[in-house]
Amino acid sequence: MPQINVNPTRMELKKLKGRLQTARRGHKLLKDKRDELMKQFLEVVREEKELRAELETRFAGVRGSFEVAAATMSRPVLTEALLLPKAEGTLTVTEQNVMSVIVPRFSYEEASRTDGCGYGFLFTSGELDHAVAELSTMTADLIRLAELEKSAQLMADEIEKTRRRVNALENIMIPQFEETIKAISMKLDENERGNTTRLMKVKDMMLEERLAADRARATV
């Protein structure tokens, strides 16, 4: 692991130890965030999967009813029956913060609804009535499905970003700090031993000079 290019001084060593401590705290927080995001993501995916399976089953029934209606009704009558909207409503979009991920929240409020199916029953098929009525009951679930899918997408993106940051701290930054701190500590210890050795040599030289001076005075 390459070291960080800094001067091997005690000041730099102190700074690096502070940065290492910060990196370790950030690593723990990001891991906790990733784990909690993953937990909530799996809950969203599970609900989305169950709701999608239910809607697909209901859509299959609606499609079958439409196919029967199309087979028993003339195309102009079918088109005219489905031309006008059967209901009007308002879709409100708000936001919610989930572990720093801004996910959408959809709220649908039906403002008005046409009486019955919105068309006359004289020339229409009962299968068409059933299909239109079933579709009208699926609106809220379809909106909820869209909300879940968008939330899952946003949470998955954030999980991937967080995972990359955790890996960068765990495999690059923290090892670099540790390796550099170790190298600087060894360099400072080596310098300290060198200084101690030089001081001992100077002390020995001064002691020898003093002994030599004492012997010279004694001879005189």
Short overview:
This protein is mainly alpha-helical. 74% of the residues lie in helices and 11% in strands.
Q: N-to-C SSE series?
A: HHEEHH
| Secondary structure tally: strands | 2
Radius of gyration: 39 Å
Low-confidence stretches: none
Q: What's the CATH topology label?
A: Helix Hairpins
CATH class: Mainly Alpha
In round numbers, the mean pLDDT is 84
Q: Please, how many helices?
A: 4
> Globular, elongated, flat, extended or rod-shaped: what is the shape?
rod-shaped
Derived from helix and strand composition plus strand pairing, the structural class reads mainly alpha
Describe this structure in words.
- This protein is 74% helix and 11% strand.
- With 220 residues, the protein is mainly α.
- The protein has one domain: Helix Hairpins (Orthogonal Bundle).
- The chain has a two-stranded antiparallel ribbon.
- The longest helix is centred in the last third of the chain and has 81 residues, at 139-219.
- The protein starts with 9 loop residues before the first helix and ends with a helix.
